[in-house]
Amino acid sequence: MTKAITDKFSRPLRDLRISVTDRCNFRCRYCMPSEIFDKYFKFLPKNDILTFEEITRLASVLANRGGVKKLRITGGEPLMRQNLSTLISMLHEIEGIDDIAMTTNGVFLPKYAEELKLAGLKRVTISLDSLNDQTFMAINDRGIGVHKVLEGIEAARQAGLDVKINMVVKRGMNEEDILPMAHFFKDTSIILRYIEYMDVGNSNGWTLDHVISKQEIFNMINKELPLEPVEPNYVGEVADRFRFKDNGQEIGIISSVTDAFCASCSRARLSADGKLVTCLFSSGGHDVRDVLRSGATDEELAAFVKSIWEKRDDRYSEERLKHTNKQQLKKIEMSHIGG
Ligand code: SAM
Ligand code: SF4
Ligand code: SF4
């Protein structure tokens, strides 16, 4: 087994989240507010974006020489990137990668689910924040109805992909949807995971008042649909797992704000333009594209990433409350590095 690279707190580099585009067909108010991401917004030019070959080479070097085991494709909306299944099949060839997943808003899944599965994608996490059309359209700000995502979920299932649902919960946005979502997914085999609203980037106007805590979410559901805890699948699993007492269906809550999990964070993020980012809340990344395009050998590339990871001491979420009272730090936007 390849020896993992470890950081200052002995956390291995195990997961690589690869953003394949900074563009999106949604303008979720909490992620890409349309007044900022408008028609004048400068998205990355094509030449700045890593090619499939560059992404595959980096993933392969990190799997072979760095101990990376899991890949997640994200964005922006990853399915806006042309021929994405080709990338999946290239990544699928890499020895040592156990798992390839994708996070998507689901709208393009009816078109692509089958070819993605055939290419080697195992799992999709589909984001759905409400079952109420009015609320959902207000969130995505593109007039896209809930049925579009439900069709995507169905297509993914039909194709044999393992499906999970992510619901970001924000006070004043969708707390009324917590219970309806629990009811809806309880009778499916699909795991729903609630996510505390995070202060990613600088454009979503986050305040602590917007956060509905894990405890509040749990209480709200448990009162009506009694829950019991489920053991974590593995050390470092980000979601706290529960199951409904009556039918055993699982749900999860990801408490990045009120109960941070930095101690076991083994994730690196790669932006579409090839910046390696060691924490979701970093103010910048390290330019791997330059190294990839400079003719560096695999050894040199691995050494570059190793030198970055070995210096890593990020634990933003554990220290968040120290930062929120201070002047805002500059942070990368979520649409640039994915979730
Ligand atoms: N476009 C794809 C999607 O929405 O699934 C992938 C990229 S999106 C940035 C990844 C995930 O981050 C989504 O589930 C989204 O809901 C979540 N997200 C975005 N901004 C967030 C925030 N401020 N707090 C918590 N989750 C957030
Ligand atoms: Fe797009 Fe996903 Fe951000 Fe929504 S959360 S704007 S779907 S990248
Ligand atoms: Fe990992 Fe940074 Fe999130 Fe902590 S705040 S869990 S170090 S990405």
Could you give the topology of this structure?
Elements: E1 15-19, H1 52-66, E2 70-74, H2 84-92, E3 99-104, H3 109-119, E4 123-127, H4 133-140, H5 146-158, E5 162-169, H6 178-186, E6 191-196, H7 214-224, E7 227-230, E8 239-244, E9 250-254, E10 267-270, E11 275-277, E12 286-287, H8 288-293, H9 298-310, H10 316-324, H11 334-337
Parallel strand pairs: 1-2, 1-10, 2-3, 3-4, 4-5, 5-6, 6-9
Antiparallel strand pairs: 7-8, 8-9, 10-11, 11-12
One iron/sulfur cluster (SF4) binds at residues 24, 26-28, 31-32, 75-77, 105, 127, 335.
Mean pLDDT: 93
Strand content: 15-25%
Classification by helices and strands: alpha/beta
* Name of the CATH first level: Alpha Beta
CATH homologous superfamily, by name?
Aldolase class I
How many DSSP H or I helices? 11
Order of strands across the main sheet? 7-8-9-6-5-4-3-2-1-10-11-12
Please estimate the helix content.
25-40%
Keywords: 4Fe-4S, GTP-binding, Iron, Iron-sulfur, Lyase, Metal-binding, Molybdenum cofactor biosynthesis, Nucleotide-binding, S-adenosyl-L-methionine
Subunit structure: Monomer and homodimer.
Binding site for GTP: 17, 72, 103, 164, 267-269
Organism: Salipaludibacillus agaradhaerens (Bacillus agaradhaerens)
Descriptive notes:
It is a single chain. The chain has a single domain (15-337), classed as Alpha-Beta Barrel (TIM Barrel), CATH 3.20.20.70. α3 packs parallel to α5. The protein has 339 residues and is α/β, with parallel strands linked by helices. The protein has eleven helices and twelve strands. The model has no long low-confidence stretch (mean pLDDT 93). The relative contact order is 0.16. α1 (52-66) links the parallel β1 and β2. It has a twelve-stranded mixed beta sheet with strand order 7-8-9-6-5-4-3-2-1-10-11-12. Bound molecules: S-adenosylmethionine and iron/sulfur cluster (2 copies). One iron/sulfur cluster is lined by residues 260-262, 265, 267, 279-281, 314-317. One of its GO terms (molecular function) is 4 iron, 4 sulfur cluster binding. It catalyses: GTP + AH2 + S-adenosyl-L-methionine = (8S)-3',8-cyclo-7,8-dihydroguanosine 5'-triphosphate + 5'-deoxyadenosine + L-methionine + A + H(+). Keywords: 4Fe-4S, GTP-binding, Iron, Iron-sulfur, Lyase, Metal-binding, Molybdenum cofactor biosynthesis, Nucleotide-binding, S-adenosyl-L-methionine. Belongs to the radical SAM superfamily. MoaA family. Monomer and homodimer.
